[in-house]
Amino acid sequence: MTNATQPIILTGDRTTGPLHLGHYIGSLRSRVQLQHEAKQFLLLADTQAMTDNVGRHQKVTENVVEVALDYLAVGIDPDKSTIFIQSQVPELAELTQYLLNLVTVSRLERNPTIKEEIRLRGFERDIPAGFLTYPVSQAADITAFKATLVPVGDDQQPMIEQTNELVRRFNLTVGREVLVECVAVLSHVPRLPGIDGKAKMSKSLGNAITLGATPDEISKAVHDMYTDPNHLRVSDPGQVEGNVVFMFLDAFDPDTAAVDEMKAHYRRGGLGDSVVKRRLNERLQALIAPIRERRMQFERDRAGVLEILRQGTMRAREAAGATLSEVKGALGLNYFGS
């Protein structure tokens, strides 16, 4: 178990679908390591996922267990990391309500992350209120556990800045240090594109390789991967930059010297796409096979997985409840002495 002097980390995923290799390279591997170095809370963000899935709530709830299975399959240990369900910790919703009083609508609309996500979803001015205010919900998630470190991508830095703004505003308002500021832990791993070359890898876009993919699904995905459209013959010089196969090899092939040699050969010509894809397929099959096997083992005991989530959620409620009690006390909302 983690030592009380260790840093507290909060991280998590929206429960809108099974996790894929983009999640694995971007965060899951580091979370497995971090659980040995810090007190880690892993949030299954179903409440947040509801903010832009109106009418698709069943998809959100069904994927809670799917994401939990992925966590367990990659090596998250529930004895070292607290895995919990956001919607089942009502203390987070109450803390969100108090923090909402400390931020304006115009400040939320200026948040670069929110602005970009509103654009991507085509909301324009028809923005669901829950979606607009989810940075405050995220701030509650972080501050409820007094997390000091929050692993995020570059695009999420504005969310951490807004969290710290709210922490400072709250502490100034009540005249004492109650909530704790956090630090963004940035991933140094480039974001993986989809197998079609598009910037975003997503199961819903059909351009992702999930962590539970079968051997045939992996082989088909690699076969369909975007390479260099001008590399028509084996003898033609090929372009490595923007070539999805080489981007995946950079991410998953530990033999960097061999990959560098393949890149040089590809650039000068004489190396076919099929050879490069064959190597990548071998690497991905070896990587995913044990993850898939562990996932299948956990899936056979879904009741056991739900029990892990129940216990983790109880621990999360205890931690969040302690912070909420401090917050309510600082605001004078402890009418009955508790």
TrEMBL record:
Class of this enzyme: ligase
Protein name (Swiss-Prot/TrEMBL): Tryptophan--tRNA ligase
Key words of the record: Aminoacyl-tRNA synthetase, ATP-binding, Ligase, Nucleotide-binding, Protein biosynthesis
Superkingdom, taxonomy of origin: Bacteria
Species annotation: Cupriavidus cauae
GO biological process terms held by the UniProt record: tryptophanyl-tRNA aminoacylation
Molecular function per GO: ATP binding; tryptophan-tRNA ligase activity
Family to which the UniProt record says this protein belongs: Belongs to the class-I aminoacyl-tRNA synthetase family.
Catalytic activity, reaction form: tRNA(Trp) + L-tryptophan + ATP = L-tryptophyl-tRNA(Trp) + AMP + diphosphate + H(+)
A GO CC annotation given for this chain: cytosol
Signal peptide: none
